[in-house]
Amino acid sequence: MKISILSGKGGTGKTTVATNLAKTLGYMYVDCDVEEPNGFIFLKPKIIKDNEVKVLVPTIDYDKCTLCGKCVKACQFNAIANTGKDIMIFEKLCHSCGTCVLVCSQDAIVEKSRTIGKIDIGETAEIKCIRGLLTVGEPMAGPIISQIKGMIDDKDVLIDCAPGSSCNVVKAIIDTDYAILVTEPTKFGLHDLHIATQLVRKMGIPFGVIINRSDEYVNLITDYCKDNNITILGQIPFDKKIANLYSKGKLLVEDNEYRSMFLEIAQKLKGVVLCS
Amino acid sequence: MKICITSTQDNKDSLVDLRFGRCQYFAIYDDEAKEFDFIPNPGIKSMQGAGITAAQEIINMKIDVVITGKLGPNAMKLLKGSDIKIYSLEKATIQEAVKSFKENNLTEVTSSVPAHFGMGGRS
Asked: Domain 4Fe-4S ferredoxin-type: where (chain A) (predicted)?
């Protein structure tokens, strides 16, 4: 069972839910929030291997290049320009599609690889963990997410996603069997939850909602879920004890009260996943 | 000599567009013919690399001087690589910009603003 965890709004508790559920269920934990992966802070796995993530970018062989500019016209990402004296490559805009190589009639373009980040593979006493890490200043997270997803070798896995509903989220949740949308009972939480809901519906992924920092059992998120026929998997209270554990880098399930809460959420999750 | 001024509209009384890559129009002033020509900036439609697209268009038109407000690192690198002079100004019309340039009242741009500056904080 592949379960993705997304939110719409940032800072609602995706990683809190993902790490605690991974530990509760004994599922592999995969951090696809490669711009700021922080699940390992709480799970503290021992890193056993790391892989560099590389993408291809063009380089020009000036012995062959005639400055014809075909590559400039063909590039859909504006990553190549012709100054009239040389061909400038803007590597960070390149999507590694290889079109420039195909259109060059002089065979003057050679691709070289460029490192944009890495993937760490680790393990705790109970579960396997993977995280992607995009190098600071690099704009494109997609290739790292795709590579991580190709490395998942457990059948039961929780995928922690980036906030928002961008390509990075789409790449992370595609092919997952179920999605958990983590939100909070604020207007911002509701606004972005609605966007995330539209995304998973469009992608045909069954989903449920977890409400974090929940003060009241009935709130604007529960109203929204009721109106839209969405399953609520659980509510995590707005509790200083949680903030305390979190600030020390501890999992909530290290506390008895919250261990039973996550067991309950896990049980409900298994039930609804079977029915979806 | 051909001068390109980034423009908000397509006439010589319009204000200079202080953004380079995402300006609305290029006002092209031909110093010999003493005439203006206005063309839409193809960079404005770019999903990414607007400054590069705009700069490439300017290179293709064999422009010698660019007058704008601010420009980003990629456009800057590309224009400099083509030996195009870049001058910056604050609020002015297209006609005033040409006049200021002729009177040597403009400062040459030597540093760029961060990427996506002209998008008002959106990346």
From this structure: 56-85, 87-114
